[in-house]
């Protein structure tokens, strides 16, 4: 049930299976663990050793077969914090290397659901107002419901405002989701609807390709341009478009 999340926290698939199984079993030997997880005994031994090294499992030694117990899941938070502390120490040097190669301008592509989440994380890192043209509420696709809920909570905490010019379809079908965007809501004339959208924030201009109302395609492509002067130009054009659209 939780294996995917545990893997995202740094556990291998077998480690995640075994740790979750031990939470149910409480205490078990390698044979019982192997039966419960469908992991070969040899692989169970390897994964158990790594879990012990990570402090997530501890052995109970006996004259017969050793058994193993899980530690409190709170330990997972400690592991995350330890990794965050390690990253914080080296982050300035990593950023220095990145800036030295990329400078003030760059162009790149994000693809897929995980790429889309990275794009939203960029918005939070920038911490500046966001401007949409041709918005279609694709952020409210059920596939990312939990993620987008946390995104808007963090955006609210950072006082990020969302200024939008939506497709006409959104006016009729947007419903409660429109409340996540700051008024006034503007809408393009129906004849100007497309299957693309544009978003401007910080020094970035991002184009979404092949998007439809509240549908986030698994293979969505986002073209990112990073240039402060370019982004400011797009914000100026946004103001003109918004001024000529209905609310």
Task: Please describe what this structure looks like.
48% of the residues lie in helices and 19% in strands. It has 247 residues and is an alpha+beta fold. It folds into two domains: 3-71, Orthogonal Bundle (Arc Repressor Mutant, subunit A), CATH 1.10.10.10; 104-243, Endonuclease Chain A (Endonuclease, Chain A, 2-Layer Sandwich), CATH 3.30.870. Strands 4-10-9-8-5-6-7 form a seven-stranded mixed β-sheet, sandwiched between helices. Strands 1-3-2 form a three-stranded antiparallel β-sheet. Helix 2 crosses helix 3.
- Output the CATH homologous superfamily of the largest domain: Endonuclease Chain A
Q: What percentage of amino acids are in beta strands?
A: 15-25%
Rg calculated over all Cα atoms: 24 Å
Query: Class by helix and strand content?
Result: alpha+beta
Number of discrete domains: 2
User: In what order do the strands lie side by side in the largest sheet?
Assistant: 4-10-9-8-5-6-7
Helix content: 40-55%
The CATH class of the largest domain, by name, is: Alpha Beta
Low-confidence stretches: none
Between the first and last Cα atoms, what is the distance in angstroms? 45 Å
The CATH level-2 architecture of the largest domain is identified as 2-Layer Sandwich
What is the CATH fold-level name of the largest domain? Endonuclease, Chain A
Shape: elongated
Mean pLDDT: 90
Element-level helix/strand string: HHEHHEEHEHEHEHEEEEH
Biggest β-sheet description: 7 strands, mixed
